[in-house]
From TrEMBL:
Stretches for region Disordered: 46-110
Annotated protein name in UniProt: SH3 domain-containing protein
Compositional bias annotation for Low complexity: 61-87
Length: 290
């Protein structure tokens, strides 16, 4: 304490006098006041107030304004493109439901339904056009190879210009029109080597094959055409396929000659020839033209 306690109770020894106490208080009062002031100053510093009624200050860093919370939603990808169903070319008309506005007159001639229509008289490396209708005024849909063949549908039309067009199945359920001039049915194949007057030789395989064709057409009209439809294959053993068409026979559209040659001192000499008749009106069970 800042001053001593004075007791007056009996039986107790008296302490220092009042005057001495007052003197002591005078001596210690300034020091006590100074100590109290220092104590209050120290306590006021701990509150952290900037002044009366002020908010407490803080030294913690506040978050920046530009920061944003990351989204918890799943990312959304680009919308899937929609794919249109592919569309193929328009399907040719089924003859069973064909409208009656096709040009030309329907004629009852081969090939008939389910006959095998073979391409004839078309040069090797080329092809026979098949069209969306019976005539050259219809769009070309594709070509058949020179040695190709397809099932016939059994419908043939004759146009005003005298041309004939017949319908064949090019793919399953797809029907097109081809010129009847380049269509026939293949008869049975036979070896005619022994029937030739000579086995000709030439500088090339093709020339040797054409010499055989000339032997076969010597007695036929000038309208006969010889067309190389396959080959030639050159070499020590060569071969070439030649169609002879335009024979002027209603039953026989032409002949197909498969000529095989060998290299000799005279060039390419014919070794063998096979003949396949190209039938215009059908084939018998024996492979002959009707």
């Amino acid at each position: 304490m800042c001053c001593n306690y004075v007791s007056t109770a009996p039986g107790h020894v008296a302490g220092p006098s009042l005057g001495a106490n007052v003197l002591d208080m005078r001596r210690t009062l300034p020091a006590a006041v100074l100590a109290a002031g220092l104590l209050l100053t120290a306590c006021g510093t701990e509150t952290g107030q900037d002044g009366p009624g002020g908010e407490p200050s803080s030294t913690a860093a506040s978050p920046t304004e530009t920061g944003t919370e990351p989204s918890t939603e799943d990312p959304t990808g680009p919308e899937e493109p929609t794919t249109a169903e592919p569309t193929g070319p328009e399907e040719p008309t089924d003859p069973a439901t064909a409208p009656g506005d096709l040009p030309g007159e329907v004629v009852d001639v081969p090939p008939y339904s389910d006959d095998i229509a073979a391409v004839i008289g078309v040069e090797a490396g080329s092809g026979l056009n098949y069209r969306r209708g019976p005539g050259t005024d219809f769009e070309v849909a594709g070509t058949l190879e020179p040695l190709g063949y397809r099932p016939a549908i059994g419908e043939t039309r004759r146009r005003e210009d005298g041309s004939h067009w017949t319908q064949v199945m090019v793919h399953d359920g797809w029907y097109y029109w081809v010129s009847l001039k380049h269509i026939a049915q293949l008869g049975g194949t036979t070896d005619i080597t022994a029937d030739l007057t000579e086995l000709p030789s030439a500088a090339t395989v093709e020339e040797a094959g054409l010499l055989v064709a000339r032997q076969r057409t010597a007695d036929h009209p000038p309208s006969v055409e010889t067309v190389v439809v396959d080959g030639p294959v050159e070499g020590d053993a060569g071969e070439v396929v030649i169609d002879v068409v335009g024979l002027g026979d209603d039953a026989l559209a032409g002949e197909r000659l498969h000529v095989v040659t060998e290299r000799t001192g005279r060039g390419h000499t014919v070794r063998s020839v096979e003949l396949t008749p190209l039938c215009a009106r059908g084939v018998t069970e024996d492979g002959l033209c009707e």
